[in-house]
């Protein structure tokens, strides 16, 4: 049998590396980096280079399963039985309780085409905005930060800016672990340019912080105070670009009045850093050119939008945006959170970067879809959706390509919510996730190496993802499952012709072409892209309007922004403490994050033995003094608890942790650790604007057992 080679992308992080999949006799046998892909130029990290080892049938969901009554075990069913059952239950709930009694919880790991169809199914056919995604846990504060200041959800910089910058300001990101191939690019830039300064803002001394010229180990949640304090110093030091502020921005005077209060002494006290280090950071940033990179440390916070906006304020105040080597560049956690945002696959958004709250945008989408209207009622965002299941206002939930019983905050209440739901539909490639036990219906989906569609990475680059293999057993493409369901539901709701018209697709490319049309004239216009062009010319950055020959590597080069008056808006950001404070009973701060060689809940990476070589088992990292005070020795089992839950795991003495700070990796769930995983301890409090929950901080106590 001949070996076939198929160009695709890695399905893990938002760097979006290109891969070449090798397959033989119906099996994926190898993977290597695509030397032509501009995100990685042939390189892959440990996760990407072992992707072929994850293509194992034993862990997969391969056939539909169904139980008609709670308390029964699910049995294998045909696709017709399973989808008819779900359509009948959805139709009956919608008739009795209205469209907002059902909800869809989808994923930043879906392809753009999958996302588009689910969004249209909820908002276009059913008439509910209850469609949200695990991207709410990942990037929604970055979205809100961009829109508040720049007027559109568009990361202005690109990976190439790493080669042009003189100050790389990394905040709330362990890039070396979470975005390893981008980090290789940082190492290369540093080797070529010894003058490059790297500043890392992180409560932990991560591998990224270890390699920095300046590490600012701020206390958890104090980023806004830090950024306001830097702006205060830049004002005093004459580091601002007053001509740029005057010509291209509004709102600076109000912010100036605010940051006057953020004196170096006050900021150093709030953040727990030295005044001299604050001054160094302000000088390096202000002198520039400065590129900032940031991730969940800013986003997963009850002040996530303000953290993003306060950092963007620094770029606007110093005129460091739209020029080589400058600008804010949010690092997308998941491979296609960007694509999901583009199609408006969230409770607060609409297709083509439109806003649900905007009546004009709702009318445009209704016209594009050929329906009377898009519902105005706001949909439930992730935490609200599970609260709705618990209080009974939402009766049925359809979960696709994500594992909320491990990934949501306050897991005990999420599991309670799933248990109370009248119907849980789970569309998954893997059979045994934490969420599977709650599923009344399990629908087997295709996954990496089997799917066709597009993804967009952190630098707005769209890649055509191609299948190397046919779907295994009875698994089907995610968008196709949603289309099959839409036709059945339409018939039951006496809207069969509407459903036929809304969902005519037989190929992913038809979905892409329709999505493309919704972007016409918008900031992300991709009307010049097609599968054929992506195949012929390779991955492209948006915007790429019809008639263009290339995309734009960086945005706002002309100083014109997406706000109505064309000017960027300074956000008047105020520091607010974390939702939960430490106290005498719960005196330690708990942080969480990624390991280098694992991905999310380990459905995929957990099947590869060599990915446990880096870190074998979960542990809580603690400062030596905190361990000594509790008579805990390295390796001792400890109980970590607060009012939401308890975990039992080994404690490790770590020089990376400051006193009173602890860290548990996010990956292990109920099957590996006594308890449900670290998110059982995290609060469900969320940011007022972005609705993103604070997954990066809880107060806990640690006891030796
Ligand atoms: Fe995959 Fe991210 Fe590693 Fe690239 S850096 S190979 S996208 S996990």
Blueprint of the fold:
Elements: E1 4-9, E2 18-24, E3 27-33, H1 46-49, E4 65-66, E5 75-76, H2 79-97, E6 102-106, H3 112-126, E7 131-133, H4 140-149, E8 167-171, H5 175-178, H6 180-192, E9 197-201, H7 207-210, E10 214-216, H8 223-236, H9 242-248, E11 249-250, H10 252-259, H11 264-271, H12 275-287, E12 290-294, H13 296-299, H14 304-317, E13 327-330, H15 337-342, E14 349-350, E15 354-355, H16 359-369, H17 382-391, E16 396-400, H18 404-407, H19 411-420, E17 423-428, E18 441-444, E19 453-456, E20 461-465, H20 478-492, H21 496-502, H22 508-518, H23 531-537, E21 540-541, E22 568-569, E23 588-593, E24 620-622, H24 624-629, E25 637-642, E26 645-653, E27 661-665, E28 698-704
Parallel strand pairs: 6-7, 6-16, 8-9, 8-12, 9-10, 11-22, 12-13, 16-17, 17-18, 23-27, 24-26
Antiparallel strand pairs: 1-2, 2-3, 4-5, 4-18, 14-15, 19-20, 20-21, 23-28, 25-26, 25-28
Helix pairs in contact: 2-20, 3-20, 3-22, 4-14, 8-11, 8-12, 8-14, 17-19, 20-21
This protein binds iron/sulfur cluster.
The site of iron/sulfur cluster has 14 residues, from helix 1 and helix 6.
Protein name: Nitrate reductase
Family: Belongs to the prokaryotic molybdopterin-containing oxidoreductase family. NasA/NapA/NarB subfamily.
GO molecular function: 4 iron, 4 sulfur cluster binding; metal ion binding; molybdopterin cofactor binding; oxidoreductase activity
């Amino acid at each position: 049998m001949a070996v076939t080679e198929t160009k695709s992308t890695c399905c893990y992080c938002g760097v979006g590396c290109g891969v070449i999949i090798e397959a033989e006799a119906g099996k994926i046998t190898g993977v290597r980096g695509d030397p032509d892909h501009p995100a990685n130029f042939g390189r892959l990290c440990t996760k990407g280079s072992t992707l072929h080892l994850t293509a194992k049938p034993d862990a997969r969901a391969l056939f539909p399963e169904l139980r008609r009554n709670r308390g029964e075990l699910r049995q294998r069913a045909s696709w017709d039985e399973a989808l008819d059952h779900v359509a009948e239950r959805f139709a009956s709930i919608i008739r009795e309780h209205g469209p907002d009694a059902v909800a869809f919880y989808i994923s930043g790991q879906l392809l753009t085409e999958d996302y588009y169809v689910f969004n249209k199914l909820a908002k276009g056919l059913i008439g509910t905005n209850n469609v949200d995604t695990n991207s709410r846990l990942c990037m929604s504060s970055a979205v809100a930060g961009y829109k508040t200041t720049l007027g559109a959800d568009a990361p202005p910089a690109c990976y190439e800016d790493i080669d042009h910058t003189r100050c790389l300001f990394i905040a709330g990101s362990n890039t070396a672990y979470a975005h390893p191939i981008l980090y290789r690019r940082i190492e290369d830039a540093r080797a070529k340019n010894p003058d490059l300064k790297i500043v890392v803002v992180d409560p932990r001394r991560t591998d990224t912080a270890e390699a920095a010229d300046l590490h600012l180990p701020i206390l958890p949640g104090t980023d806004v105070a830090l950024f306001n304090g830097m702006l205060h110093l830049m004002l005093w030091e004459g580091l601002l670009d007053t001509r740029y502020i005057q010509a291209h921005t509004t709102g600076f005077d109000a912010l100036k009045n605010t940051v006057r209060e953020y004196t170096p002494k006050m900021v150093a006290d709030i953040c727990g850093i030295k005044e001299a280090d604050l001054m160094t950071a302000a000088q390096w940033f202000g002198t520039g050119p400065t590129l900032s990179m940031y991730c969940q440390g800013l986003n997963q916070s009850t002040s996530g939008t303000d953290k993003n906006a306060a950092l963007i304020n620094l770029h606007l105040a110093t005129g460091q945006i739209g020029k080589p080597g400058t600008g804010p560049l949010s690092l997308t956690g998941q491979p296609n959170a960007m694509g999901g945002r583009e199609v408006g696959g969230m409770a607060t958004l609409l297709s083509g970067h439109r806003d649900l709250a905007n009546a004009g945008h709702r009318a445009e989408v209704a016209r594009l879809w050929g329906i009377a209207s898009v519902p105005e009622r706001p949909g439930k965002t992730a935490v609200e959706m599970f609260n709705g299941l618990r209080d009974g206002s939402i009766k049925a939930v359809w979960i696709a390509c994500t594992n909320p019983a491990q990934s949501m905050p306050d897991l005990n209440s999420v599991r309670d919510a799933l248990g109370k739901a009248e119907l849980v539909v789970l569309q998954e490639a893997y059979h045994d996730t934490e969420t599977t036990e709650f599923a009344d219906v399990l629908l087997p989906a295709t996954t990496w190496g089997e799917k066709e569609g597009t993804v967009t990475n952190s630098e707005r680059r769209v890649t055509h993802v191609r299948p190397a293999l046919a779907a295994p057993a009875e698994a089907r493409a995610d968008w196709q499952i949603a289309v099959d369901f839409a036709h059945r539901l339409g018939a039951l709701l006496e809207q069969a012709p509407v459903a036929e018209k809304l969902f005519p697709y037989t190929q992913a490319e038809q979905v892409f072409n329709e999505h493309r049309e919704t972007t016409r004239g918008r900031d992300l216009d991709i009307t010049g892209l097609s599968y054929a062009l992506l195949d012929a010319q390779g991955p492209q950055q948006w915007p790429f309007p019809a008639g263009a020959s290339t995309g734009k590597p960086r945005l706002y080069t002309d100083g014109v922004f997406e706000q109505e008056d064309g000017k960027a808006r300074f956000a008047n950001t105020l520091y607010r403490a974390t939702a939960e404070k430490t106290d005498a009973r719960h005196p330690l701060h708990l942080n969480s994050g990624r390991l280098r060689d694992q991905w999310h809940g380990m459905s995929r990476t957990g099947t590869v033995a060599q990915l446990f070589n880096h870190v074998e088992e979960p542990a809580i990292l603690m400062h030596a003094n905190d361990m000594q005070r509790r008579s805990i020795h390295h390796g001792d089992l400890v109980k970590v608890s607060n009012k939401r839950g308890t975990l039992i795991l080994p404690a490790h003495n770590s020089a990376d942790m400051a006193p009173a700070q602890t860290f548990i990796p996010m990956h292990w769930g109920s099957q590996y650790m006594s308890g449900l995983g670290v998110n059982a301890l995290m609060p469900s409090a969320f940011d007022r604007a972005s609705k993103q929950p604070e997954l990066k901080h809880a107060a806990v106590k640690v006891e030796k057992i």
